[in-house]
Amino acid sequence: xxxxxxxxxxxxxxxxxxxxxxxxxxxxxxxxxxxxxxxxxxxxxxxxxxxxxxxxxxxxxxxxxxxxxxxxxxxxxxxxxxxxxxxxxxxxxxxxxxxxxxxxxxxxxxxxxxxxxxxxxxxxxxxxxxxxxxxxxxxxxxxxxxxxxxxxxxxxxxxxxxxxxxxxxxxxxxxxxxxxxxxxxxxxxxxxxxxxxxxxxxxxxxxxxxxxxxxxxxxxxxxxxxxxxxxxxxxxxxxxxxxxxxxxxxxxxxxxxxxxxxxxxxxxxxxxxxxxxxxxxxxxxxxxxxxxx
Length: 293
Known about the structure:
Blueprint: E1 3-6, H1 8-13, H2 16-26, E2 30-34, H3 50-64, E3 67-72, H4 82-102, E4 106-108, H5 117-142, E5 145-149, E6 152-155, E7 160-163, H6 169-179, E8 184-189, H7 190-195, H8 200-211, E9 212-217, H9 238-248, E10 254-256, H10 270-287
Parallel strand pairs: 1-2, 1-10, 2-3, 3-4, 4-5, 5-8, 8-9, 9-10
Antiparallel strand pairs: 6-7
Helix pairs in contact: 2-3, 2-10, 3-4, 4-5, 6-8, 8-9
């Protein structure tokens, strides 16, 4: 079980190259390549030389002694406009290729969930089964798995989070089982599950070791999706999480998707904050059954 961190937070403060080097220096074994900014046509990875840029970033990682274990595709995966959604689909395909060039084995791709889930749950399911099936040939072409993730929507009048695609374990399992391909797996977002009032150990057991092959681990106050460092709020059951991961014999990696934590620090303190993140990720990996730490 490798422990990793997304590049997003550090790339926001510096750039992707600096992010990769800083994560390596802090002690992370791997990095999760954040490709969120590919929604911007001006993003470097949207230019004709995107393959060369990906190879250059991989060379930086190789020199720093860190690997890219997984990636995160641009999101949202849909907005409800057919033209824009097709453009977004093609951007996700390019993100898959870039992640594969970096060496990632898994790329997290959010389900489409632009519709109001309360009244369009079945339509959302059918839409996503078609969406993920359409991505499968690219998985085979690039040699990379896609991981569906449990989501949430925001109830604006009530100022609170509510269910969306894959919020509940049974629906998440059904997505993966109905597509029925080894190229589609599950990424359990721990913070999202906590926000939708799920029991984390039960969620892990429901997914099981075959479906569950990636993790996004972070903390929140059970109200806002703050993506902060575990143990900050004391409200998310990380002990139960790691015990359940160990129980099912989890074979995937642990990505600490808590880099919003970094944005609260003055720049001179950021390197120390990244080191604390690495120590936290290492601890959680050990608790989940890492044998060689």
